[in-house]
Amino acid sequence: MVYRVLVTNHAKKNLAQLPKNDAKEICLELKSLSFEDNPKNHVKKLKGNKNPPFYSLRVGSYRVILNIEDNVMVIHVIEAGHRSKIYRGY
């Protein structure tokens, strides 16, 4: 069971602005997450009344905001950035 990883245009732009080795590390972590049986065990659920809920994936000092849909086995990458700025608006 492999989850598909879909990256929004905004997240692609965020990843392009990061240092190359950090962006590469994030991509490797997302690929690793897609092969997990239950990827929600490896991320932190963000608090709030968001429907669908958002999750945070920790990669060094960077965070990736995602949404995981189990019924269609898709991981939507919403945004990526440094941990000091990423949570604003979520």
Automatic annotation (TrEMBL):
Keywords: Toxin-antitoxin system. It comes from the Archaea. Pfam families: ParE_toxin. The keyword Plastid does not apply. PANTHER family: TOXIN RELE. This is Type II toxin-antitoxin system RelE/ParE family toxin. It comes from Methanomicrobium antiquum. The lineage of its organism: Archaea, Methanobacteriati, Methanobacteriota, Stenosarchaea group, Methanomicrobia.
